[in-house]
Design a protein that fits this description.
mainly alpha; 2 domains; about 230 residues; about 85% helix
């Protein structure tokens, strides 16, 4: 029973991606599946957010056939008939070709790309750290040079990841600032419309007063004329 428990735990560790240096795991591990599922979820979330805007923008520039293809590909992706990453790549090509100045779509795409890159960097960093621990335990002081080189590699990978995260946060901040400015412009426009509406009402009231005064004056002239006659 104890051996069965140990075998079960060993299999779980293999599935989580922890294996000995001389051991190979055939097929996908749970860790691989989790990373793949995480990337697919990000890609799907991006497509659900970006597809409506992309379709609308394509129709505005007259690319109705391409807009239909984007919708068809999205439906196929939701049904599991087409690879999500392939569709994301197609979106990237369309955005870079036709809408490179659209900060919203470009920002969403850049954040997705940077998140996926970060995940790959962190995955390599974790694998290198596990390998480093195994090398240090087996080789001791004889592996000082390689260990130091690996540590430097991990540090650079971590710096790259933090840099990408910083860029993503800055882009998010820029988008939020753009939304605030757009909201302010909308409020200013609404204020101008309200002022124009008020001015129009006042102008109509002035016209009514002039008409009333004109009628009163005509009546007065008519009465005076009758008295003179």
């Amino acid at each position: 029973a104890e051996m069965e428990t140990m075998r079960a735990r060993l299999e779980i560790s293999r599935q989580m991606g922890f294996v000995a240096d001389d051991e190979k795991v055939h097929g996908e591990t749970l860790k691989d599946k989790a990373v793949h599922a995480s990337r697919n979820m990000r890609n799907l979330r991006f497509l659900m957010t970006n597809t409506p805007k992309l379709v609308q923008s394509l129709k505005k520039i007259g690319s109705t056939s391409l807009a239909k293809k984007v919708l068809s590909d999205f439906a196929a992706a939701k049904a599991g008939r087409k690879d999500l990453q392939a569709i994301v790549d197609e979106h990237a090509i369309i955005i870079n070709t036709h809408f490179a100045t659209d900060r919203v779509m470009v920002g969403r795409l850049n954040v997705l790309i940077e998140d996926n890159i970060c995940e790959r960097i962190l995955g390599r960093e974790e694998e290198a750290a596990i390998a480093l621990e195994g090398d240090d335990a087996d080789l001791g002081e004889d592996d000082d040079f390689d260990s130091e080189e690996l540590r430097e590699h991990l540090e650079h990978a971590h710096i790259d990841c933090e840099d990408l995260r910083g860029k993503a946060l800055r882009r998010i901040g820029n988008l939020q600032q753009d939304l605030l400015l757009a909201a302010q412009r909308e409020r200013t426009l609404q204020d101008q419309i309200e002022k124009q509406r008020t001015h129009l009402v006042e102008h109509e009231e002035t016209i009514k007063r002039h008409v009333t005064n004109e009628l009163t004056l005509q009546n007065t002239i008519h009465s005076t004329q009758e008295e003179l006659d």
